[in-house]
Write a structure and sequence with these properties.
TIM Barrel, 6-stranded parallel β-sheet, alpha/beta, disordered C terminus, globular
């Protein structure tokens, strides 16, 4: 049996069985056989098409602030970075960003920000409640870091539907290398468990190629995500920021990131997996390559133009053109060029898809919704 045939057989087994022994996962990750990689991506793409057709869900990203009390060594908005220009969007601005997106057809909004003590539970719950009143048919996703169980429950009751909290690495020693001693991997994993228990559609994920990461770490991450069964899986390459301790570390591999997207698609056929901004930042066609490897979500930026450069988790972040909400027509053309189309629906996780049901590629277009007169909650 040739190496290519062996890798193809591993990909087939992964789709059939949902997991593989660690040594076989290592083989899929590390072997750079071109035909084997093409087969892996093709099988993942076929799997995504079976479950979602040629539809790519869009999420409107609003970066609500770059103030953070954490000091993660890889992050450009870490507490110790005295060069970043800090900002917080007020409630009215956030609502206007979402209103603009709603008029464009977005039906999911993702609020992302640093762990800012000023943005306390009361302010966050009030913001979520205002968004729920203003956009009752839209999904609200939060990505605001570690909170108490009571806070997560309060946000959920206020109207949040989803929560993104990447664990970054499941290996305790590697986690300690990337984070200050005040942060705990056990606590982060506990947060993820509580989010699922409360009822959120829950997302986690990893940085690919972060400093100190090994193939064994990645296998550990794959096995954790297999067992946790998140609804959303975010996989993006590490990109250094010039004002962090990892400024001179090399960026993660686009190719390895694509292999991981494919592995997770075969492992979790119904998962919502984005082609991340980090992929598009490292490679001009990174978004398209992510989709062709099995991703089915993109997140155009709805944030105000004046704040986008300030939310710099890493250097040279893509936030204009097809990565921006105002570039939706360009995104539509670029997706059409590879055989896909934008789906402006909420794009919720569907347990029926996990059970094997799938949608046709000939699904009808998204019906336009009339904007309702709604209450604008102003701080």
């Amino acid at each position: 049996m040739t190496e290519t045939d062996r890798l193809k057989g591993l990909a087939d087994r992964l789709l059939l069985e949902g997991t593989l022994p660690p040594e076989d996962l290592r083989s899929l990750l590390l072997h750079h056989d071109g035909q084997g990689a093409d087969y892996l991506h093709g099988l993942a793409r076929q799997t995504a098409r079976k479950h979602f057709g040629n539809r790519i869900f869009i999420r409107g990203l609003v970066e609500i602030g770059n103030c953070c009390h954490n000091d993660c060594l890889y992050c450009g908005i870490r507490r110790s970075n005295r060069h970043v220009e800090r900002y917080r969007l007020d409630r009215q601005t956030i609502l206007e960003c979402c209103r603009t997106g709603y008029e464009m057809g977005f039906r999911t909004f993702v609020l992302q920000g640093g762990e800012d003590p000023w943005m306390d539970d009361e302010r966050t719950a009030t913001l979520v409640s205002c968004l729920r009143q203003a956009f009752p048919d839209a999904a609200i996703t939060l990505s605001l870091g570690e909170k108490t169980v009571e806070a997560y429950r309060r946000f959920f009751e206020a109207g949040a539907n989803r929560y993104l909290l990447r664990h970054e690495t499941h290996n305790p020693a590697h986690y300690a290398l990337l984070h200050p001693a005040s942060m705990s991997l056990d606590h982060r994993l506990h947060c993820l468990e509580e989010l699922k228990r409360i009822g959120y559609q829950t997302g986690t994920g990893i940085m690919v190629g972060s400093p100190g990461q090994t193939a064994d770490h990645l296998v550990e991450d794959i096995r954790f995500i297999h067992d946790f069964r998140p609804h959303m899986i975010g996989i993006g390459p590490f990109i250094p920021h010039h004002d962090t301790p990892f400024a001179h570390e090399p960026a993660g591999s686009v190719e390895l990131t694509l292999r991981l997207i494919s592995i997770f698609r075969l492992m979790h056929p119904a998962a919502l997996i984005p082609a991340t901004t980090a992929l598009a930042s490292l490679s001009p066609d990174g978004r398209e390559r992510g989709i062709l490897a099995g991703a089915n979500v993109v997140m155009p930026n709805l944030s105000p133009l004046h704040s986008r450069a300030k939310y710099a988790l890493y250097d040279n972040k893509a936030s204009l053109g097809a990565e921006a909400a105002e570039g939706l027509a360009l995104l539509d053309r670029r997706l059409a060029a590879i055989g896909y189309r934008i789906d402006k629906g909420r794009g919720d996780y569907d347990n029926n898809r996990r059970a094997g049901c799938h949608t046709s590629e000939d699904t009808t277009g998204i019906e336009a919704h009339d904007l309702k007169t709604d209450i604008l909650c102003i701080k």
